[in-house]
Write a structure and sequence with these properties.
mainly alpha
């Protein structure tokens, strides 16, 4: 039953980072990204990834879900894609 609780907490974290990323993009970065509408998803995933890395490496929180997430190639691939899509308009 603890695994379902971790999945629920992860879902709440993802939803909250989507909201924070959208608000951050609309309120702070709207001047930089006027023509790009999907950047808020990338900013949300960057924030979620940094939060995950902070929990794993700084807080040393041990969890099967966190360990699987950090060791996943998809996690790192999407993280690199997100950083590229956020930084590419500046280049």
């Amino acid at each position: 039953m603890a695994l379902w609780k971790e999945y629920f907490i992860t879902l709440i974290e993802i939803i909250s980072f989507l909201i924070v990323g959208f608000l951050l993009t609309e309120l702070v970065f709207s001047n930089f990204y006027e023509s790009v509408d999907s950047v808020w998803i990338s900013i949300s995933f960057i924030l979620f990834s940094l939060y995950t890395l902070f929990k794993v490496y700084v807080l040393s929180k041990k969890s099967l879900l966190l360990n699987d997430r950090v060791t996943s190639l998809a996690f790192w691939g999407i993280f690199i894609w997100s950083v590229y899509s956020v930084s590419s308009p500046f280049v």
